[in-house]
Amino acid sequence: MPKSSYTILKNSSINHLGRLKFHNQNEVDTPICWFGLSNIESQEFQLDVFGKSRIEAFLSNAYDLYYQDIKKNRESLIKELVARGLCHKMDSGGFQLMKAKMSNKKLKFPLTPKLVLEKQLEIDCDIGVQLDFPFGPYLNKTQKKKRLNITLEYLERLLKLLDVYGIDFSFLPVIHTVSNDLHLLNYGLNKIENILGEVPKIIGIGSLVPLVLRGFKKDGINNFIYTLITLRKKLPESFIHAFGIGGTMAYLAVLAGVDSYDSNGWIQKSAYGVIQLPGISDRFLKKESHNRPYLIQNRKQRNCHKIVNEIDMFMDCECAACKIYKKQKWNNKDWLKKQNAFCGRDKQSKLLRAIHNVSLYQNEVLEMRKAINDNRLNSFVKNRLRTSIYYKYIEFIEKLDSLELEELNNLNELMG
What we know:
Elements: E1 5-12, E2 15-21, E3 27-30, E4 32-36, H1 43-53, E5 57-61, H2 62-67, H3 73-83, E6 87-91, H4 94-102, H5 113-123, E7 127-129, H6 141-165, E8 171-172, E9 174-176, H7 183-196, E10 202-206, H8 209-212, H9 220-234, E11 239-242, H10 249-255, E12 260-263, H11 265-272, E13 274-277, E14 280-284, E15 299-300, E16 307-308, H12 310-315, H13 332-342, H14 347-373, H15 377-384, H16 393-401, H17 411-415
């Protein structure tokens, strides 16, 4: 069984302010965001970003360490981050393994539950994720159930290995479900409970990303919310981690009962020239040829009557990258100076964007903890998403939150 404990410090509806304690006595408060490592940026770059952003936790990947980290750069970075006191979660790389199989990529050796565990023990992470087999797009229910059974088989093999080794180790069992009728969710939870011999106190849920991709699946975000809230009501005292959910979607996920999520997007966003603002999706610093949204004043939102002064928001930021540009009163010359510093593909501009974005994500986690403690998470998320296309989904979360578990039987009826 997972040698970890989860203590709820404050309950606020379906939301937890909690503390996750690992087999090695390290601990982290929740909600928590785990920041992914880059296989492109240097160790020096990432140490600078994570240090100045004051993150609490990061994640690595067994697949990456076995097949991609040839020069041991990420392994060296992990050791330094752990030495700085950050909590470390090591994913199995099940998603990367699935992609490799779909593209017929030849691996020098097969990735197995034993190899994943050995790497997690070798690196001495705080918590490891079991090897899993996510759902690819366009699968039918039979194919999904077959993949879920493989994940459950991997969980059984992991438990046998830990028994043979005779060690305590914190690990995260994984379930996958995208089924509207909750068949796979119920099936998977029952199997996991039988394998563990108890209701899972910590669990990760995957295969959520297709649900939140715009235009990929009709009613996908409603399905995403429905799945998370149903899981939370089935496991009211458990720690729930959502794979692949970060950025703006994290507000909805936490409001729907999630305790933990990952952020890998900071790497690509910073490299592409994107910055983040609280509750606002990607913004470029100036108008680009691709014509995607960039920072402007007096932006009129299509979904509400609010006027948003995005440049004001950016100029008010006090993170380590922005603080030297912070002024009580700023003028256009000040804005152009900061805009010029953050624009471009050079290392320094990219570093500033990365520090700003990661600082924002980390700060929002802390703000959500405060909001849960003060019983105001709902109003906090409403404020953050007031100009977002995702604001309309808060009402659906409120509706499902108000229902008993037995009333959550049919998504289509609930959306009616």
